[in-house]
Amino acid sequence: MALSSPGTGTAAATTEAPANRRGLLPLLLVGNGAMYALYIGVAGVLLALQVEDIDAANKVANFGLIAGVSAIFATVFNPVAGALSDRSGRRNPWILGGGLAAIPAMFLLGAADTILLITIAWCLGQAVMNIYQAAITSVVPDRVPMSARGKASAAVGLGLPLGSTVGALIGAAFSDDYRTGYLVFGAIVAAAAVLFTTCTREERRPAKPSMPVKAQLAAFASALADHDFRWAFIGRALLVLGYFAVSGYQLYILQDHTVLPEGMKPEAAVAIMMPLTSVAMVVSTVLGGWLSDKYDRRKLFVGASALLSAVALVIPALSTSWTAMLAFAVINGLAFGCYMAVDTALVTMVLPKAEDAARDMGVLNIANAGPQIIAPFIASVIVSVSGGYTALFIAAAALAVAGALAVKPIRSVR
């Protein structure tokens, strides 16, 4: 997510007029919402169904392989694209280019008819989406002053519940027509990219000189040498690992773990759960961002929301009922919405150097993408060894608790 540190905002962030910022926040919501719609609708619904249709017997292992390999591309492209946009002094061209490239990437994914081709196509999809993501998440530290970071982070955070709802509904609507569904998601991202870059003004910053590859790698590693940045990275990585270990298999959990009402299909269950989660996330995102600004207490809200996520994860471990899953959806939405809103504000305050905002944001985003590499393999092993999903929920809850504890050592933020 977008990062900065106290007192190190860029000129654009500290001088932009409040009126312009008000126009920026809705566009951040749209831009991030489109991104999450694609991530949730594709990876959470269409891709899972496509993999199951090709090889139902090995769906858990195959889906884990695809998700893990493609997440490697996300991990690589996010910081690299961030560094390139830093060097160019621009964000909008990268947002536009990544967004438009989503259409051909989704076309290729829809045309894939083997596990290998799906893997290749989704790797390309992850690559272009992370070019888009690295640039758009750098807008907050670039253009928003420290005093408004909570509100800006809330606007970014609202993109997740709203985008998730749209993604789940579109995914369910096109569950029998993958190709069209994929193209719809690509078109949504492309349209959001065009809207954002057309309606936002960007002051070109001085371009940065080229650095040798060795120096670039050293620069990436230097960010993790910063004490507070490192603990923010660890906390985010732990929570995201637990979150994606479960959410990546949501459709299969509803198929094989949850006792659904008679006649309800798993795709329909996803379309019911996502709006519930989204409403909860909207409430907690707005309140979390506002209250963290009001009381200037980021660590308290981040730790508490991570612990609440652990509580949510225990519920479906104790019960396989549909009611338990609905309770999980609501409580987890409250927890994750607050966490992402406030943690985004927190990490904007521990960035080592504002002039390297996108690059270091990309390093922190490895805490988002990196665990996604590990999560599918860990989840598939746990499910295979334990014979079900109960142990997976317990393991994810333990990771959430560890993520809550990881924010305690951060010194520069309350």
| CATH level-3 fold name | Growth Hormone, Chain: A
Please, what is the average pLDDT? 83
Distance between the terminal alpha carbons, to the nearest Å?
19 Å
Helix content: over 70%
Describe the main β-sheet briefly.
none
The computed structural class is mainly alpha
Poorly predicted ranges: 1-20
The counted number of beta strands is 0
CATH top-level class? Mainly Alpha
Instruction: Enumerate how many helices there are, as a single number.
Output: 16
Q: What's the SSE pattern?
A: HHHHHHHHHHHHHHHH
Q: What characteristic shape results from the CA principal axes?
A: globular
Number of domain modules: 1
CATH architecture identity: Up-down Bundle
CATH superfamily: MFS general substrate transporter like domains
